[in-house]
Design a protein that fits this description.
The complex is a heterodimer of chains A (262) and B (283).
Chain A: H1 2-5, H2 15-18, H3 21-37, H4 41-57, H5 61-89, H6 95-122, H7 125-133, H8 139-167, H9 178-184, H10 186-209, H11 228-250, H12 256-261
Helix pairs in contact in A: 3-6, 3-11, 4-6, 5-6, 7-8, 8-10
Chain B: E1 10-20, E2 26-36, E3 40-45, H1 51-58, E4 66-71, E5 74-75, H2 81-87, E6 88-91, H3 104-114, H4 119-132, H5 148-160, E7 166-170, H6 178-193, E8 197-201, H7 205-211, E9 214-219, E10 222-228, H8 229-233, H9 236-241, H10 248-255, H11 268-278
Parallel strand pairs in B: 3-8, 3-9, 6-7, 7-8
Antiparallel strand pairs in B: 1-2, 1-4, 4-5, 9-10
Helix pairs in contact in B: 3-4, 3-5, 4-5
The chains are: A mainly alpha (262), B alpha/beta (283).
Bound molecules: adenosine-5'-diphosphate and magnesium ion (MG).
């Protein structure tokens, strides 16, 4: 559970929370592209570091730490897998460069987690829905999206109850080999999925009985407006994108190993 | 107060149990109780009083933050849920939280397989449980095709199949029609007569009044009263504190007190007898 807390909206008043969700969304998209663009350690570390002030500005350090800690296990797995596969399949590289490339992949993962963590920690599901809607995306899709987000905690709670109910019937979740563990999830996933489907059908019926979709031209109580800070964030994001494209095309990125040994 | 380790007939002992959920909700605050082997107990109290939290301590799904829970003399922190579950059958409120098999038969054999019974025993037990809850005709039917009441019976059968010593039913009457309730009541009473320790969690006073168990009233994480149904359900102050209603028949007899009627009436049949006698009838 604690890992998810790193991605759950935290209602704090901070400049980052007040930003237009659309501006933040552009920022996330650009950071995503840039992160995937680089596979060298140095630019990825820089991408990690430039986002840290953002976390403190948003005052979500504690929750951010959670997402970082929660992803540590995956990070270790990614590191080991990369190390092993690079070692066995690309025999010509030195161990130093293999190490650095594995580290780079790990840092890339961490930067992605960090970016999404900041976005979801500071943007409420309602704001997200609003942003989608005012970007002229059909209301049906926006509604489906916000509903899905809103039902995540409900599903998590339900999964816990189902797990309890099956444990009460003697299901042992721990132990056993890999396949047995996978099989143990069947008695949990089936009721969870069946209930989710049943609930969505019920939701559809109740919505229709309250005339959902009767009026094509919806208006919103809150109207999003880009302010100077939002434009600034978009500009910064675009600059990051431009610089990254330039660097990756024209600069031969030195590796840390090279810097150290030269 | 020191307690003996449940050496005599104490089946369930809770000794100053506190429980706090990870989000900080204090669901139990100093619960003490003793339930004997073969006793019949109803736990009552308003929504959020901590009833479900309490019964989850009996099969070890939850372990006390402070205090101890002993089942048949064994502390719940020392054994796994699966071990405790052999003794403690807990039927959850909503059957949809556990049904997942393709047929009713398979659903009932799920727990038996988990406990490692052999094929022959499993078959025998499944037959027995199907008969017990009148589900024979649905043996090969998908549990998802059944009605709410039937699904509840399948859930119950899937627990009773392994014949646990203690049977706990969380809100068994919710969503059941009058007929089903009546059958359920007879069934529960029968289980208890056969020597099982039975615990029901409910706020259905009429249902409880007719079963006549020991009642434990809960309020805000504490047990505020324990006693015979007749004493507890006619005590308006207590019942109000726990946000439970008086049984309808009790309200009537309270109103008739001035005419010299007894006050502590909770059972409809008893009430009928009293009125019959008053009106000069002979039984
Ligand atoms: N999984 C949980 N996490 C956090 N709080 C919970 C959880 N389950 C129950 N609670 C809280 O604990 C209290 C007691 O709940 P519960 O035992 O379910 O009451 P009851 O069964 O009497 O209605 C309530 O305040 C409820 O909100
Ligand atoms: Mg409950």
């Amino acid at each position: 559970m604690s890992m998810f807390d790193g991605f759950k909206f935290r209602s704090v008043s901070s400049p980052v929370h007040q930003m237009d969700p659309r501006a933040k969304f552009i920022y996330v998209c650009i950071l995503f592209v840039v992160t995937v663009m680089f596979s060298n350690l140095i630019p990825l570390i820089i991408l990690f570091l430039i986002q840290v002030p953002f976390v403190f500005m948003a005052r979500v350090q504690k929750e951010w730490m959670r997402s970082m800690k929660g992803s540590a296990m995956f990070a270790v797995i990614i590191f080991v897998m990369n190390l092993l596969s690079l070692y066995f399949y690309t025999g010509y590289e030195t161990f130093g460069s293999i190490l650095e490339r594995s580290l780079a992949m790990t840092v890339r993962f961490i930067v992605l987690v960090q970016t999404f963590s900041i976005f979801f920690l500071t943007t409420s599901p309602d704001m997200l829905g609003l942003a989608l809607e005012q970007s002229h995306i059909p209301y049906e899709i926006c509604f489906a999206f916000t509903t899905a987000v809103r039902f995540v905690p409900v599903l998590a709670e339900e999964a816990q109850t189902i797990m309890d109910a099956q444990k009460a019937r003697g299901l042992e979740m721990e132990g056993g080999n890999f396949f047995k563990r996978i099989r143990n999830y069947i008695p949990i996933l089936i009721p969870l999925i069946v209930n989710a489907i049943r609930r969505s059908l019920e939701l559809a019926e109740t919505m229709e009985s309250r005339a959902w979709g009767a009026n094509r031209n919806r208006t919103n109580l809150y109207v999003l407006k880009m302010r100077r800070e939002d434009v600034l964030l978009i500009l910064i994001s675009l600059v990051i994108l431009a610089v990254s494209i330039y660097v990756s095309m024209n600069v031969q990125m030195p590796s840390i190993i090279q810097l150290l040994t030269s | 107060m020191p307690i003996d380790n449940g050496s005599d007939e104490q089946m369930i002992v809770m000794d100053d149990v506190y429980f706090t959920y990870p989000n900080g909700v204090e669901a139990l605050m100093g619960v003490n109780l003793k339930i004997e082997d073969g006793e019949f107990v109803a736990i009552m109290g308003q929504n959020g009083a901590g009833k479900t939290t309490l019964v989850k301590h009996i099969n070890g799904l939850l372990k006390p933050t402070k205090g101890r829970v002993l089942i048949d003399g064994v502390e719940t922190t020392k054994v796994s849920v699966a071990t405790l579950a052999r003794k403690v059958g807990l039927v959850f409120q909503n059957p949809d939280h556990q049904l997942f098999s393709e047929t009713v038969e398979e659903e009932i054999s799920f727990a038996l397989k988990n406990f490692g019974y052999d094929e022959k025993t499993i078959k025998k037990r499944v037959d027995w449980a199907l008969n017990l809850l009148d589900l024979n005709e649905y043996r090969k039917v998908s549990p998802f095709m059944l009605s709410g009441g039937e699904r509840k019976r399948v859930a119950l059968a899937s627990v009773l199949a392994w014949d646990p010593k203690i049977v706990i039913l969380d809100e068994p009457t919710i969503g059941q029609d009058y007929r089903q309730k009546e059958r359920l009541r007879q069934f529960i009473v029968q289980l208890n007569r056969q020597g099982k320790t039975v615990i029901i969690v409910t706020h259905d006073v009429e249902f409880v009044a007719e079963c006549n168990p020991t009642i434990m009233l809960m309020r805000q994480g504490r047990i505020i009263a324990t006693g015979e149904a007749r004493e507890i359900l006619t005590n308006e102050t207590l019942v109000n504190q726990a946000s439970v209603a008086l049984p309808e028949i009790t309200k009537i007899f309270k109103g008739l007190e001035d005419f010299g009627f007894p006050r502590k009436v909770i059972d409809v049949y008893e009430a009928a007898d009293i009125l019959y006698e008053r009106l000069g009838g002979q039984r």
